[in-house]
Amino acid sequence: MQLEIRPDPAEVGRARRWARSRLAGSGIGADEPLAETLILLVSELVTNAVVHTGCPAVLRLSLPEEPQDSATVRLEVADRSGRAPVPRCADGDATGGRGLALVDGLADRWGWSSDGSGKRIWCELDRGGEQDAAVTACGGGASAYEGFAYEAV
């Protein structure tokens, strides 16, 4: 399943609505922690694509074909910008700069790769696994934001 995204901030809300409708048909309840986390990750990755690239993007969602207690959900955003995603350390007053920290803290796995002249950023969530919202502190290595907790509201 995929959704074409225009380089317009209004597309973020459309991407969330699209993802929610796909979840509803997959047996993943809207009130499950997995669904709430996935919608937050859709919001962050699509926002990054729209705000930081100014290019169209494609949102892909891979859901289990049949409801299962343990399954992996994969989210990808591909865009036409060759610029690598760079995690930032945002200070307490900053209004942005925390998107990749959220992805790092909420996804079970994530990464990115070059894709032609653009890139593909992906993350995976394991259904039935613990949703761990703790991330590591700025400057602390691969997971750079320890001690912060995030909640999808």
Helical content (DSSP H or I, runs of 4+): 25-40%
Main sheet strand line-up: 1-2-3-5-4
In terms of per-residue confidence, which ranges show pLDDT below 50 for 5 or more consecutive residues?
131-153
Number-wise, the strands total: 7
Strand content: 25-35%
The main pleated sheet reads as:
5 strands, antiparallel
> How many helices in DSSP terms?
3
Could you say which overall geometry the principal axes of the C-alpha atoms support?
Answer: globular
Written as H for each helix and E for each strand, in order along the chain, the element string is EHHEEHEEEE
Distance between the termini: 25 Å
Instruction: Give the overall average pLDDT.
Output: 80
Oligomer: single chain
Task: Give the structural class.
Answer: alpha+beta
Radius of gyration: 15 Å
